[in-house]
Design a protein that fits this description.
- This protein has about 80 residues and is α/β, with parallel strands linked by helices.
- It has a single domain (about 5-75), classed as Rossmann fold (3-Layer(aba) Sandwich), CATH 3.40.50.
- The chain contains two helices and three strands; from the N terminus they run E-H-E-E-H.
- Strands 1-2-3 form a three-stranded parallel β-sheet, with helices on one face.
- Helix 1 links the parallel strand 1 (about 5-10) and strand 2 (about 30-35).
- The longest helix has 12 residues, at about 15-25.
- The two termini are about 20 Å apart.
Length: about 80
């Protein structure tokens, strides 16, 4: 069974490094970024793959930690 991780602040320095570390350990990584962070994706561009690829292990979600409905949607 593949381990899964949810990383908040994925476009930040720590979030991007943590995501890369977990991917190298075999995790499926789900990252949350705010829609207002659209232009700040340089740190995760190398991790991102086509969302239609069946074997992708990095999934990017748009959400806000202050919005419980977006968190519920991501976790489900």
């Amino acid at each position: 069974m593949t381990k899964k991780a949810l990383v908040t602040g994925i476009t930040g320095q720590d979030g991007a490094y943590l995501a890369e570390f977990l991917l190298n350990k075999g995790y499926e990584v789900h990252g949350i970024k705010r829609r207002t962070s659209l232009f700040n994706t340089d740190r995760i561009d190398r991790l991102y793959r086509n969302p239609h690829e069946p074997d992708r292990r990095f999934i990017l979600h748009h959400g806000d930690l202050t919005d419980s409905s977006s968190l519920i949607r991501i976790i489900q």
